[in-house]
Amino acid sequence: MSTTLSNHAASASRVRRKGQSPLNRRRNHAALMFLLPGALIFAIYVVYPVLSSIVLSFYNWDGMTPRSFVGFANYAELIQTDTFYVALKNNVLWLVLFLLAPPIGLAFALYLNQNVRGIRLVKSLFFAPFVLPGVVVGLVFSWFYDPTFGLLRLIIGHGIPVLGDPRYVTYGIIFAALWPQIPFCMILYLTGLTGINSEIIEAARMEGAQGFKLLWHIILPQLRPATFMAFVLTVIGALRSFDLISVMSGGGPFDSSTVLAYYMYDQAIKYYREGYSAAIAVVLFLIMLAFIVWQLRRLVRSES
């Protein structure tokens, strides 16, 4: 009997030394093999470009001749350039106004989240702007703002050069960008609304909760993941705005509508300043990273 117990103890000790059973090792190996292709693709197409951009930002390079190391000269020039601060101010303006998309999308989602005849067609009409390419949206709103024949002229009775006036151009482009962004947030909230526990809502109504109280204390807490995704993706969309600016204004007039993403493109493609453009990209990446980390910390704390 003692011999048997000692044998079991020895085998248990060997298992502990190995750390895992053969079955667990096979499971971990299978999980690793499934994760490896995705991790490899992420490393090649995300991690490597980020690291190479950071390295390139310390060089002066035109894309053809050998690179020359300049240290922090690109960053020093960047913070001394007026266009950088104009682009940064416009990015902040984009961020502030773009954050209107999640609450408006939530309002549309609450309105469309009902079982009535024809609601699917209405949902499709609301979602249609999101599936349009950015170039198409830019062209549509360029015609809309045209002071000679645009629909805006017919609405207000006279033409306003929205895209030709430095005071209005950024607001006009942001309004055009909100047109597809609001339906995107609406779809996120509609998806979240389908997963809400109806029993909790009924119980809250029996306790007297209704209207804004029901929305604030019962529905919105269950929509926290959808809200997180809507805000993070909206902020990323605001900071990387490029296509509408390229189509509608080209950063003008007089660089008044440029943002960091377009400024980066402008320096790299037009002026062959790859290192300086990489420095702009690094600054934009750090701004995005800071916001995303802040939002993730808030989400983790709220879940805790």
3D structure, described in words:
75% of the residues lie in helices and 1% in strands. It has helices at residues 2-18, 22-56, 73-79, 82-98, 101-112, 119-131, 134-145, 151-156, 169-194, 198-206, 211-222, 224-239, 243-248, 260-270, 274-303; strands spanning 59-60, 68-69. It has 15 helices and two strands. With 304 residues, it is mainly alpha-helical. α12 runs antiparallel to α15 (274-303). The protein has one domain (74-303): Orthogonal Bundle (MetI-like fold). A two-stranded antiparallel sheet has the order 1-2. This is Sugar ABC transporter permease. Residues 14-23 have a biased composition (Basic residues). Residues 87-297 form the ABC transmembrane type-1 domain.
Quick description:
With 304 residues, the chain is mainly α.
Based on CA atoms alone, the radius of gyration comes out at 27 Å
- Please tell me the total number of domains: 1
Counting helices, strands and paired strands, the structural category is mainly alpha
Q: Give the strand tally.
A: 2
Global outline: flat
**CATH level 3 topology:** MetI-like fold
Q: Which H/E pattern describes the elements?
A: HHEEHHHHHHHHHHHHH
- Mean pLDDT over all positions: 85
- Second CATH tier, the architecture: Orthogonal Bundle
Distance between the termini: 50 Å
Low-confidence stretches: none
Instruction: Assign a percent range to the helix content.
Output: over 70%
| Main beta-sheet annotation | 2 strands, antiparallel
Name of the CATH homologous superfamily = MetI-like
**Relative strand content:** under 5%
For the record, the CATH class is Mainly Alpha
The total of helices stands at: 15
The main sheet orders its strands as: 1-2
